[in-house]
């Protein structure tokens, strides 16, 4: 069984990269390519997180990425809550 995460996670990482000015064309290109997918394998997500943590050298990378989540990232449920 392959565990997958929402493609929204890649969009959230892209927001984090913009906010914290993480300048990595390689990581940015991979994240952008995944942002439009419905889902991605968790192994791929974990590899992106590890690379982001290494590049940023920030102490709480996971929390910082998670802080970028908003209701619009929750699909239909988020839409219903907003309206």
Helix/strand layout:
Layout: E1 4-6, H1 8-19, H2 25-35, E2 39-41, H3 42-56, H4 61-66, H5 75-82
Antiparallel strand pairs: 1-2
Describe this structure in words.
There is one protein chain. With 83 residues, this protein is mostly helical. It has one domain (4-82). It has five helices and two strands, in the order βααβααα. It has a two-stranded antiparallel ribbon with strand order 1-2. It is globular, with a radius of gyration of 13 Å. The model has no long low-confidence stretch (mean pLDDT 84).
Order of helix and strand elements from N to C terminus: EHHEHHH
Domain unit count: 1
Which structural class is indicated by helix and strand composition? mainly alpha
What's the helix count?
5
Strand order of the largest sheet: 1-2
Structural shape = globular
- As a percent range, the share of strand residues is 5-15%
Over the alpha carbons, how many angstroms does the gyration radius reach? 13 Å
- Main sheet record: 2 strands, antiparallel
On the 0 to 100 scale, the average pLDDT is 84
